[in-house]
TrEMBL record, chains A, B, C, D, E, F, G, H, I, J, K, L:
InterPro entries, sorted: DPS_DNA-bd (IPR002177), Ferritin-like (IPR012347), Ferritin-like_SF (IPR009078), Ferritin_DPS_dom (IPR008331)
Any Pfam family hit: Ferritin
Organism per entry: Rhodococcus zopfii
Residue stretches making up the Ferritin/DPS domain: 19-156
Alphabetized CDD domains for the sequence: DPS
SUPFAM superfamilies, alphabetized: Ferritin-like
Listed name of the protein: DNA starvation/stationary phase protection protein
Entry's family note: Belongs to the Dps family.
PANTHER family according to UniProt: DNA PROTECTION DURING STARVATION PROTEIN 1, GENERAL STRESS PROTEIN 20U
Gene3D superfamilies per the UniProt record, alphabetical: 1.20.1260.10
Superkingdom of the source species: Bacteria
Amino acid sequence: MKSPITSTLDPARRDVAAAALQAALVDLVDLSLIGKQAHWTVVGPQFRSIHLALDELVTAARDFADQAAERLTAVGVAPDGRAATVARESAAKGFGDGWTKGEEVVAAIVDNIAAVVSRLRAHIDATADADPVTQDLLIGQTARLEQLHWMWQAQLA
Amino acid sequence: MKSPITSTLDPARRDVAAAALQAALVDLVDLSLIGKQAHWTVVGPQFRSIHLALDELVTAARDFADQAAERLTAVGVAPDGRAATVARESAAKGFGDGWTKGEEVVAAIVDNIAAVVSRLRAHIDATADADPVTQDLLIGQTARLEQLHWMWQAQLA
Amino acid sequence: MKSPITSTLDPARRDVAAAALQAALVDLVDLSLIGKQAHWTVVGPQFRSIHLALDELVTAARDFADQAAERLTAVGVAPDGRAATVARESAAKGFGDGWTKGEEVVAAIVDNIAAVVSRLRAHIDATADADPVTQDLLIGQTARLEQLHWMWQAQLA
Amino acid sequence: MKSPITSTLDPARRDVAAAALQAALVDLVDLSLIGKQAHWTVVGPQFRSIHLALDELVTAARDFADQAAERLTAVGVAPDGRAATVARESAAKGFGDGWTKGEEVVAAIVDNIAAVVSRLRAHIDATADADPVTQDLLIGQTARLEQLHWMWQAQLA
Amino acid sequence: MKSPITSTLDPARRDVAAAALQAALVDLVDLSLIGKQAHWTVVGPQFRSIHLALDELVTAARDFADQAAERLTAVGVAPDGRAATVARESAAKGFGDGWTKGEEVVAAIVDNIAAVVSRLRAHIDATADADPVTQDLLIGQTARLEQLHWMWQAQLA
Amino acid sequence: MKSPITSTLDPARRDVAAAALQAALVDLVDLSLIGKQAHWTVVGPQFRSIHLALDELVTAARDFADQAAERLTAVGVAPDGRAATVARESAAKGFGDGWTKGEEVVAAIVDNIAAVVSRLRAHIDATADADPVTQDLLIGQTARLEQLHWMWQAQLA
Amino acid sequence: MKSPITSTLDPARRDVAAAALQAALVDLVDLSLIGKQAHWTVVGPQFRSIHLALDELVTAARDFADQAAERLTAVGVAPDGRAATVARESAAKGFGDGWTKGEEVVAAIVDNIAAVVSRLRAHIDATADADPVTQDLLIGQTARLEQLHWMWQAQLA
Amino acid sequence: MKSPITSTLDPARRDVAAAALQAALVDLVDLSLIGKQAHWTVVGPQFRSIHLALDELVTAARDFADQAAERLTAVGVAPDGRAATVARESAAKGFGDGWTKGEEVVAAIVDNIAAVVSRLRAHIDATADADPVTQDLLIGQTARLEQLHWMWQAQLA
Amino acid sequence: MKSPITSTLDPARRDVAAAALQAALVDLVDLSLIGKQAHWTVVGPQFRSIHLALDELVTAARDFADQAAERLTAVGVAPDGRAATVARESAAKGFGDGWTKGEEVVAAIVDNIAAVVSRLRAHIDATADADPVTQDLLIGQTARLEQLHWMWQAQLA
Amino acid sequence: MKSPITSTLDPARRDVAAAALQAALVDLVDLSLIGKQAHWTVVGPQFRSIHLALDELVTAARDFADQAAERLTAVGVAPDGRAATVARESAAKGFGDGWTKGEEVVAAIVDNIAAVVSRLRAHIDATADADPVTQDLLIGQTARLEQLHWMWQAQLA
Amino acid sequence: MKSPITSTLDPARRDVAAAALQAALVDLVDLSLIGKQAHWTVVGPQFRSIHLALDELVTAARDFADQAAERLTAVGVAPDGRAATVARESAAKGFGDGWTKGEEVVAAIVDNIAAVVSRLRAHIDATADADPVTQDLLIGQTARLEQLHWMWQAQLA
Amino acid sequence: MKSPITSTLDPARRDVAAAALQAALVDLVDLSLIGKQAHWTVVGPQFRSIHLALDELVTAARDFADQAAERLTAVGVAPDGRAATVARESAAKGFGDGWTKGEEVVAAIVDNIAAVVSRLRAHIDATADADPVTQDLLIGQTARLEQLHWMWQAQLA
């Protein structure tokens, strides 16, 4: 189907914005699934703190995935957040199977957030000229994820 | 790691319950991702009704996935709800890419709910003797999904 | 019109579930109208307690009627909760006209709840094999109505 | 039983007010049951919009029935809102059985609201001298029902 | 001080409206104090029901007193709701001192509400031509007080 | 387009009601814009009190404009609340440009409310026979605007 | 009637507590009526601030009157908060009639609060030995009224 | 284990405070269990009023038990609120088994509250010098329990 | 007193249900007291997590005790949840006195939940034929307690 | 009057920011009036969806108009959002009179949003150097309006 | 400026109360800043628990500082809670710079609370005769701070 | 201690961001303390408006201080918001001691906000290249503070 949604951006700028947003969508859906996986499988004395903190991460990741997808639609491109796409294209680090000790969970979450932030940072630069509206959205998501990055890192000290 | 969580079920019953719950978990995570994908890509005169109804489906699917996973932990088995596992093992029908007309969306959602209900129905029978607590959880999820099945079907008439 | 809603039950099981649910629907709509009638016409020193307690009964009856009707739709059968149907088919005991003394109201409500519970109990048995999802709904409604049965009976002591 | 509730109106005025209110009570209870019946049996592409709009109608009809009944008590007359009375005396148009297409539902609801408004309008005139308090209640109900009449009619255009 | 608030009514109409409203103000402040007095001194098996119902009466009386006073200001006349004015000019029946049996409380409240309604009814007629805005306010207060009159009377049956 | 909305009023009565409501709509939209303009441009020691009080006026004016427009639709006439219509037909007094001292703001708001109330008062009389439902709506709006008229005037003393 | 409520205090201590509480009750009811009177009749540039602040005073005075009365009942003495009692026995300073300039209102409220606090202070001393529970209630009310005393005084500077 | 919590009180004062608080804890836990027992077993025409009022008593007793226990911890002593301790040391009067008539329930609750208040009153005196912070807590609990004592006694008149 | 509450179960079935429910009531009241005892006496680095998690356990135990008791009344048997009964008949493991290290608290709570679940599991089987309504209640409580069992066990890993 | 509000921007930058904000203010007030006009006059099968979606648009337009006006004040320039100014200077496309079919409404809203976004996009570029604070506000408004642009366009497919 | 706020205390008593309150104000502002400093700089496995618990401490400290300051105004003395005054006069122990390990944070918070409580305890004695209203405020703050003292100490065990 | 929190910025960029954020933190903590100081000591006819507006300023300042501090942690630098640091390094103008007339308070608050905004504006420029995430946070804080700057200035006109 020819796109039923026109963009307020010219095609070149739209493609830059769309590439950044599709990547963010995939990473954020994956981060939400990783957060839930850890939420269920963590064990150890810090169980309750980590279990609760992971739901805050999942909430952020889900909201940001929705923002990214709905910004894609706004620039006239259909998002793709399906399981197979996520499994194939995510830049997140992933998470092991089975019960996992609390300190391993913390370390894995720090690494996953760092990987997602790294792609977002690159796309903040890439979209500066192409679309400041998309850039502003990525800046807002990065601000929150870097705050979470600090909070998870702080537990490793 | 040897399982740190003991089960109140004997191993045979635990395995029956766990198989049902792991299948439900995978299907329900997939249903939540399918619901979001449709939420973003639907177009047509019924856009707003379908867009909103899909978020109700996503909410149900996410809550039920969490219930299934936390029941798995309660019977002593670590859940697996990661993207690759979902992409590989889901019994849902899936959803096409790109912008999708409203009536195609409705038909696809009906098919996906029906597929998930079908597996749940089989597991309601399978868990009746093994674990009535797990069975009760599956009955409750089926009740809500069959209600949604009616509501989505009604739009096809 | 041929039914636009397919059932996840085979026809024999669907008919058992539908018979139980249609009977419950009619009884519960009637119970809600009886409760309101008593709410308006009760007089006596216990007026305020009874007046308020009747609205709790009406709320339960309305919610359960809606549940029964929407479960009927889910098994593929159109519900019938119209005034004439209710007047003709309800198994409730009914309620007299005009102003009514508090103790007569209490006795009449106890009788009406008992009659509705009696039909529900029979249908809990009847649906055990046909559809555990429908049975579970009827069990939940019976639990609440038997609680109300105690509360109304307690006032007669 | 001799009426335990004295009226602040003389008998002639009380009878005018009571006749208007008893008629309104019956019509509004019937409208609430018709609204629920349609809520359950509507099918077609507009399912969700109509299904939701019907619950707003039901809420209004239930609240207004309660107002009318409690104004009857205030003028010293016991209301009658039982199923058989409603089935026998309602001036509403009624609603067919079985699954019903959306556009038929809309047309039937427009007709039912119009019939109820027509009786209310006549009683606004009839109660002007007899009891301005009752008249004010009927005016308020008519205002809301004529608003709903517009909203349902608008869907037919 | 010359009145700093101009009226949208001519002086003759303003005086009719103001007389009705000042009378209502005094009666309603008194009714709120009577309600509280009864709330504190009631004893007997119905203590809790009556104690709670009296606070609903007090809430209504306070709100209506405020409405009457603020309508007086709107027609350009300063209200007077001070204790001495209320003690001197109220048309309510009053309430005895000391602990009071529940049934005496109910009878006294019925009489007090009836006395206040009686003055309001007379002012509804008096303000019909002078100021329909003031009349509408008095009609609304009468509707609620006649509802409470029924509820308190019902306890005497 | 021939009107898709039928009226429950005959044409002569409908025209009286519609004229009153269209005038009220225009005045009230204008009052809401005037209130916002003053909210932004007021300066002086009373800034905060006036700034906040203006938002209460704007809220009332917006709600009443919506009521008037939706009553127009209910009597079968399409409302017109567009900027050019408001600029051309409003009976409000308007508001100057640029920063405005608090006492000038208060005086201007008193004058604008008075002008709107004056038209409403005339239409209360005009609609008494034509449509008591419309009249009741205008009475309710006048009651609130005359209360605000007092509150703004009180600041001038 | 012999008192139906026994006291946990011996008669001598009960009488000290009751005298303090009955005095507080009368003063606080009067303060609430004075606060409302001022709320309605204040005029001047500070109208809105004073009008709103008076409702905070009224709320405090009403709550404290209720506390004092319900503490009287707890020590076995029936309270008296009727209009004539308040008019006769209040130690508050009272409030003039008619429209009142803002600065006069502020001064009058400061004087009234000071008078009420003065009696409370005396009763805090008087009840120290007789009943620390009553004393604690009076301390809490004094704390809030002295806070309001500051806030009203601050406006005079 | 040597106490891990240091006290801000010297040992003699700590012991006085702790004795008062441990006694209050035991009595209040018992009062909460007695309240629930009565809540379940009361029968008679006043069933609903008593049933609801008992939950207010239970809420107060639970909150106060928690306050007493957490004040014990604050003065450096481990509380003991276990079932056997409560059964052995409570000064409350207890409650009979089986269904209980409303008037017997009321009398039993009055006696139980009186017994608990009596010990609290003694400890208010005992803690005055030892720890005014603990005393203030006991005064606050006594204030509420004496209010409830009045409300329950009032039903016996 | 002969039971004033009739049962909808025949005597044999009623006795099975009642035995299960009375046992659950006693265990759950004890669990709530144990949970509070631990809430007050826990010490160690995990203090805050454990302290908060225990209140969630207490809330569940209290709600379930209330459910069990009110189901007992519904089947016509008076519950017994008094301190001495609980101390004598509870199947829970109990809790030591004095300050308790976090890891000992966790282990003790795991053991107590396991003991309560064990009796519930036996009663789920026992009531399957006797009363599916009671069984459904026990299933629901077991589901939540097994979830809490996992969460507390997870902290031991 | 010389401006009483100093700007934190130098005059040249202030003028750039002010021009952008005054244009946005006018467009957004107009968009809010257009949205309401369509909200009242839309007819057709999609009536309810469109009617509700228009109120979301109106809410956004009103909030953004307020933001733009209050940013104008912050940079030291008095806003102008009066009806005549809006009618004369708005860049929105406007809306026809009378009843309007749903699909025409959707197309008109898409065009109006597009026109407003177009001016905002130009001003995002214009204010980048002059005032990043103003630019950030315009970016945020554009993000939301482009999201609404997608949602309204999607209905045309 | 001569004090515009008169005191209800004589000068000698006022000075005692004011000295206690000014000291409390300074200590509590400092405690709130210390709590925030620790909230930001804590690291270690207990990060989340400590980070959250610190915000509860900050909330208490801020509320109590406000209470102390507003009691100072009520006794006629202007408070001083500015940064330099706090830095110079606080009796709290302070907090080190840079990232801080969890266990050090806990120990430092215990010490700071203990220091603040110590001054409050001395002032409870000092104000007993001078002003029981001020004393009651200090008792209430001490109760809460000693509760927090226990909770923080418990983490050290 | 070597920093336990890694930064997503290189050291040079981190230092620019950190310098801006530490300055903002100090200024905003000071602004919150200044706002509270003024909140307590303001006197004069505008007391209530200014007293309330100051709490809005304090809320903003506290929230922004927390944002600045938690952004510092996110870039890997420990914040310093202690009293002595604030007293030494704040760029705010400060506030005099003792009771302060309303107009002096307004002027002082305008000056303090202006000083804080001036440093923020400089840091918006400084961080544009170094870290757009930090810049975006500073832009958002400046937007709100410039709005407050207008509101406080408007009172001086």
